[in-house]
Amino acid sequence: MKALLLTSFGDSGVFQYVEDFPKPQIAPDEVLVRVKACALNHLDIWIRKGALAYKPSLPHILGSDIAGVVEEVGELVRHVKPGDEVVVNPNLSCGVCEACLSGQDNHCKEFKILGFQVKGGYAEYVKVPKENVIPKPKNLTFEEAASFPLTYITMWNAVIDKGEIKPGDKVVVWGASSGVGVAAVQLAKLFGATVIAITSSDWKAQKLKDLGADYVINRKTQNVEEAVREISPEGVDIVVDHIGEETLPTSIKLLKKGGRLSFLGTTTGDKGTFNIRYNFVNEIKMNGVYMGRKATLFRIAELFERGLLKPVIDKVFPLREGEKAHQYLESGNHFGKVVLKVE
């Protein structure tokens, strides 16, 4: 099969495009999906660089966000059949432990992410457990459908489950023009919040306003803390921070008493510091976010099919140009998702 192989760890030149990689063989409880599109995530970059504690065995196939067509099903699979158009859930878990059975499968001791610990969607085919495929929203293209699983599952956890969002809440979103940022903005607006989006350029600011953000702050030309306090002098209810070390202290200061911080990602480093006394005196709730509950993808897909959430794709590359796609994502010149098309 066609595949974009990660052959070593390093810059974007470590990929090798092949057309003769072995096709996955499925077990009785698995589904083989012919990949039509696979979206990139910054997770892919960290894996490619070998920057994470876990490093997959090589050659590896990246790609967590997948949409495609069912090619083959195992004998125990009943809910989908060959020819069905599907979206793949990137959350992999054992399905039988207490965490999984209580709906907290991202707490499973065997939790894995498709494309990270297991070969993913930068290929013509991918195999997944039967419970990891759901119907593709009928109104979306394959590229659009591939743009939302990982980012929206994660942001549902950050904004709704951990953030405990309520109508009228004020929400700050760092890096709002990224894939997860766009997801956070749309979900917060859907739940009736006032959204303060932080980005790095004026052209991205206009796109965020078009997407529904109530206020946009350009972090390169404005003091973020002063700008937020001008909008909301008492502070905000929720901050979503996927930037890391550089922004964590400011994120805490932006919150009102009893505010909720949802933090994930370490783009600028993982050694953030904060004042312990300030946090407990102001009863700041700090919530780590790692992916989210598998079941939330059903509701997310429904909201896309109803048109209440909209896919935001910046650029589509053919699979063989995965190196260029990684370079583009790393440049920071995108707004929304970068997607690989598999033909």
Description:
- With 343 residues, the chain is α/β, with parallel strands linked by helices.
- The chain has 2 domains: 3-150 and 292-341, Medium-chain alcohol dehydrogenases, catalytic domain (Quinone Oxidoreductase, Chain A, domain 1, Alpha-Beta Complex); 163-288, Medium-chain alcohol dehydrogenases, catalytic domain (Quinone Oxidoreductase, Chain A, domain 1, Alpha-Beta Complex).
- Helices cover 27% and strands 25% of the residues.
- It contains 11 helices and 17 strands.
- The strands form 4 sheets. Strands 3, 4, 5, 8, 9, 16 and 17 form a 7-stranded mixed sheet that branches. A 6-stranded parallel sheet has the order 12-11-10-13-14-15, with helices on both faces.
- Helix 4 (149-161) packs across helix 5.
- The longest helix has 13 residues, at 149-161.
- The protein starts with a strand and ends with a strand.
- The model has no long low-confidence stretch (mean pLDDT 97).
> What name does CATH use for the topology of the largest domain?
Quinone Oxidoreductase, Chain A, domain 1
Strand content: 25-35%
Shape: globular
Structural classification: alpha/beta
The counted number of beta strands is: 17
As a percent range, the share of helical residues equals: 25-40%
CATH class of the largest domain: Alpha Beta
Rg measurement, Å = 20 Å
Total of helices:
11
Under the CATH scheme, the architecture of the largest domain is Alpha-Beta Complex
Encode the helix/strand succession as letters.
EEEHEEEHEEEHHEHEHEHEHEHEHEHE
- Biggest sheet: strands, sense, closure? 7 strands, mixed
Terminal CA distance reads 11 Å
